[in-house]
Design a protein that fits this description.
- The structure is a single chain.
- This protein is an all-alpha fold and 195 residues long.
- The protein has one domain.
- It contains 7 helices and no strands.
- The mean pLDDT is 86.
Length: 195
């Protein structure tokens, strides 16, 4: 049961990395220091709860969130955030999944953690691009607020209520993919579906 919970925690945190890279790492650092929820860091990952890591994650979180409130700079941040979110998704999953063989841990971290973070980062980058094009960047602070809040809430839920967090992840993936596919179907030059 502990292995399943740790996998669910890793998936929830990796999805949160797709919204904001450093928020889940900051929440992990705080949770490991406070011994809150179901989080126990795997071997070799105790550094996440160290004071230098907590300071670094705090500063990085503030800078990342602030950068997303500057129109058009946020789109540039997405170019950097995409590979960084994937790496962070791999890291948080590997650190949450502790009682497995290294091969299984890293395979799971790369495929499930990195893949989940990449999917959510892709959805958020698309939402920001649509917002930039339709509002000239004026709607991007709303998108940034939703993403930062979503990352924080999902990170806390992943550690305290991992089953609920993963249900939310699947729901958001379903909704996000459906919206993206719906936008493609509505493009000019394609036949409209009959109602």
């Amino acid at each position: 049961m502990d292995s399943i919970l740790s996998i669910l925690i890793g998936l929830g945190l990796s999805a949160a990395c797709g919204f904001r890279v450093f928020v889940p790492l900051l929440v992990m650092s705080l949770a490991s220091r406070a011994d809150v929820g179901h989080l126990s860091l795997g071997s070799g990952f105790a550094w996440i709860g160290s004071t230098p890591a907590l300071i670094a994650f705090s500063v990085a979180t503030v800078l990342e969130i602030a950068g997303y409130y500057i129109p058009w700079v946020d789109n540039l941040l997405d170019a950097v955030a995409t590979p960084t979110a994937i790496v962070a998704g791999i890291l948080v999953t590997a650190s949450a999944v502790g009682d497995m063989s290294p091969f299984l841990r890293w395979s799971l971290a790369i495929l499930a953690g990195g893949g989940t973070a990449a999917a959510f980062q892709g959805i958020t980058a698309t939402a920001r691009s649509v917002s930039s094009l339709t509002t000239g960047g004026l709607g991007n602070p709303v998108v940034a607020t939703v993403e930062a809040g979503g990352s924080a809430i999902l990170s806390v839920l992943a550690i305290t209520l991992p089953v609920l967090a993963v249900l939310i992840v699947f729901g958001l993936l379903f909704f996000g993919i459906r919206r993206l596919l719906g936008r493609r179907a509505g493009r000019p030059g394609r036949p409209a579906r009959a109602a």
